[in-house]
Amino acid sequence: MNAPYVHPKIGPRAAAFLAREHKLLIDGKWVPARSGKTFDTFDPGTGRVIAKVAEGDAVDVDFAVQAARRAFEGRAWRMMTPNERGKLIWRLADLLEQNAEELGVLEALNNGKPFATARDRDVPGCADLFRYMAGWATKITGETLGISTPGQFHAFTVREPVGVVGQIIPWNGPLAMATWKLAPALATGCTVVLKPAEQTPLTALRMGELIQEAGIPDGVVNIVTGFGATAGAAIAAHPDIDKVGFTGSSEVGRIIVHAAAGNLKKVSLELGGKSPVIVFPDADMSVAIPGATQAIFANSGQVCTAGSRLFAHKKVFDRMIDGIAQQASQIRVGHGLTDGSQMGPVISQTQMERVMGYVDQGRAAGATVTAGGNRIGQEGYFVAPTILTDTKPEMSVVKEEIFGPVLCAMSFDDDDLERIAKQANDSIYGLAGSIWTQNISIAHKMAQRIRAGRIGINTHGNVDAALPTGGFKQSGWGREKGHEGLHLYTEVKSVIVSL
Ligand code: NAP
Ligand code: MG
After folding, report:
1. Where in the sequence is the domain holding 290, given as residue range(s)?
2. Are residues 38 and 110 in the same domain?
């Protein structure tokens, strides 16, 4: 067997982590998959194998669920006071920050994103969300209710943890996605079986070590690395899982819903998007151009809320396209661990081929490739920031989520907000959108008319811990983060006392 490749920029701590065996975390112990199988994990910046990871399947998921069930029913977690639970979550946030350098390296290496983004934005963002949710642990309350039934009653509600939750996450922000799932589950007192994406298991496993170091009791968080069709499917179908939280493609979202029907487990879904960026003629171009550029090219376009459909008024369309193309040409595309990289590769050969396939479909359907449209280099999976113009609503590039650095640009020549909104809303998705104008009235009127879970006005991407995120239409069920995010992990119980 060839030893996994070690990138020259890896520091000693990330190197030490990579050199360890990457097992499953079940009941506070690191164990191999029962089958003994492992799978390779890659550096998308080179295409090389960087580690072998335990390939958990239905058998391991079952052990993990049993551990999570024991931890849920046991005293250590359930009887812990909310402030103690909050402190443990806060301690995990501290540990993430203390290990930001190492986590940043591992994230850059396994996901491809620039190291500086991972260390300076993603890790602090995760720490922030854990702290935000740590604060909620002591503030999960019910209501007292006025009762009209004849007689004397005292009635109230309590919010209890939903129980054992299965969490299935994608590869586009491995640490962030694990955090969006774990933080509210821990704050509410649930226990978890987490399956990271097959492409990006490493930082979730490192987080598992930090979860132990923080003192979160054994069995509260179990991590089963493996494939969707086996480990993921076993989580979705497991009869003793009370709720499944999923982020990923709409196709798999549908599969999860079907699988969950067996025991009617609760389901929350964060699925795809095709979010509009709507630019009015009075928009401040010095804000709208970089905003629209970031909206599509951040994280190589592998963001569920990416601003992938640009609608710019005819009067400013050319300026927007020239400006975005100009900024795109200056983005330094490179390996996540190369100093100064601003945009990394896409996650895999498959994803690169998928993205390039969409560009070809767009071309064939009559779109013009105004910028990019090509792979960069022969090593790793780098795709140039791409702008397609002359795109039409019926083209696949406009309708489907590409999940890569490809912007579809369209213009409007209309002052009727209803018609503009109709165009922007012409999608099966409804995850996010942004509106660029200096007219406060237009901004609010459009915000009302866009059917999406998050609207930016003169801003597009924002992942603040307090902001709920999630989808209208086929973009999903439920909202993550913010106070709303807690509701995914609690059940309401009414208690009525006859006095
Ligand atoms: P995906 O298959 O939906 O992956 C998401 C997660 O679901 C992964 O952990 C995956 O495991 C798991 N999974 C797959 N099949 C499953 C099943 N039958 N039962 C339970 N879990 C299952 O997404 P992908 O294949 O990585 O990416 C394909 C496309 O999905 C992308 O091009 C993009 O359009 C979209 N996507 C969207 C988001 C988003 O945030 N909205 C994120 C990722 C991808 P594996 O890792 O083994 O597949
Ligand atoms: Mg997949």
Report:
1. 276-464
2. yes
Q: Does residue 475 line the site of ligand 1, with CB under 6 A?
A: no
3-state helix, strand, coil in the chain (%, to 5): 40, 20, 35
Q: Is residue 3 part of a domain?
A: no
Is the CB of 302 inside a 6 Å radius of any atom of ligand 1? Answer: no
Identify whether 480 is a catalytic site residue: no
In a domain, 488, yes or no: yes
Q: Is the CB of 26 under 6 A from ligand 1?
A: no
Task: DSSP letter for 5, please.
Answer: P
Asked if the model's pLDDT at residue 144 lies above 60, the reply is yes
Ligand nearest to the CA of 255: 1
Residue type, 47: G
User: If you take atom 8 of ligand 1, which residue's CA is the nearest one?
Assistant: 197
Show Cβ contacts of residue 439 under 8 Å, excluding neighbours closer than 6 positions.
280, 282
- Render pLDDT for 64-116 as a digit per residue (tens, 0 to 9): 999 999 999 999 998 899 999 999 999 999 999 999 999 999 999 999 999 99
Note whether 16 and 114 are same-domain residues.
yes
pLDDT tens column, 371-401: 999 999 999 999 999 999 999 999 999 999 9
Q: CATH number of the domain at 30, please.
A: 3.40.605.10
Q: Which ligand 1 atom lies nearest to the CA of residue 168?
A: 9
- State the number of CA atoms in the 13 A half-sphere of 430 facing the CB: 20
